[in-house]
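Hello again, I could really use a second opinion on something today. I've been staring at a protein lately and its backbone has me curious. Can you walk me through what the tokens say about the fold? Take your time with it, there's no hurry, and the full record follows here:
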Amino acid sequence: MELNNYQKQVMRDLSAYLECVNRGTNLFSAWREYWFSKDVAVGLGGVPSYNNSIERAPHVCMKVPTGGGKTFMACASVRRIFDALPTGKPQVVVWLVPSDSILTQTIRTLSNVDHPYRQRLDQDFAGRVGVYTKEMLLNGQNFSPDTVREMLTVCVMSYGSLRIDSRKKDVRKVYQENGNLFRFAEYFKDTDALLADTPDTALIQVLRHLEPVVIVDESHNAESKLSTEMLNNLNPSFVLDLTATPRKNSNIISYVDARELKKEHMVKLPVVVYNRTTRQSVIQDAIRLRGSIEQEAIAAEAVGGKYIRPIVLFQAQPRTGDNSDTFDKIKTMLAPPDREDFSPLRRGFSAPLRDLPARWRNVGLCGTPAHTSAAGVQSRTQRRHAPHGAAQAVCLPTGSIGSIFPMLGRSALSALRSE
């Protein structure tokens, strides 16, 4: 599996930034040099100034749309990053993921020697690659000062497994004395790098001493103060964020437009993207677009075509402040409490569509993250989980009201009123 054109450009951007870091006197000057080389200003009228949230380590982000191959690009980035770091440094990667499901998937793909992700790592490190779970690290399973010196060590862990304030017993083990790792303590030369009030043989101390490269998958989920503290506790030499929806304070070095994915045939369904400047215009245009698609669907059905139901998905923000457009706020805006005819949905969001007024059937509310509007067709998987004739509401923890997906499909993922 080879990098496609836009992925190669992202790799060139990363290499250019690393060169600026090695030439610059500090991270701020490196950031300015990198963007000036692209004729882009830093600060007012240009990209944001560098956000130095991680002490002494470059911390940058690749903004790549969902489905753009972020994980493969991360694998291709590892060699470039280590080549830019001091010679002789242990080649250790801490690969952080936001959930148990992604943790399982990442461990499986990186451990499978037949998978393109692992093949890329094997290609760049001459097949000397070890992939470890947190449990393997705690048990010292093929994890020692000798193996770390001889191979690329990839430690795949979840954000939660490194929370220093966690009450979970298995999480606290990362910060507790561990006889399986006592050999590492013999190699600790820089005692200033050790975490205070933590045993020398704790796994967190071992990782800090190794100064790993940290890859943060879905990094928009790791921007809280606790997450920043977690990253600093690892004492990283470099932090690479991967996300389709970076936070405002992200140090983005490379942007990939969704149209680039289409050029490379990475997107299998037609995608139509619109930019709007206000929330109200987003909502109005999305509902108007759904209405126009519905008229086309009705006309097609009248001449013998299959029944197609357009839907709109409004994406809510997480409950991070009083001004957040949360699920409850948007639901109230779309369905005022004084509307008695909305009661079927209020009884648990599982009313049969035939019992709902037509204007409710085609607008959904969800919290998944995205920053564009798109038109597409529901997959067979979506139809299996949302049977024809059923209305289901979806509420997840992250996202944006400014992101709306008008989609076509035989069954609505969720139902609220459309006006």
User: Anything to note?
Assistant: The longest strand covers residues 152-158. Residues 279-302 form the longest helix (24 residues). Confidence is low (pLDDT under 50) at residues 342-355, 367-419.
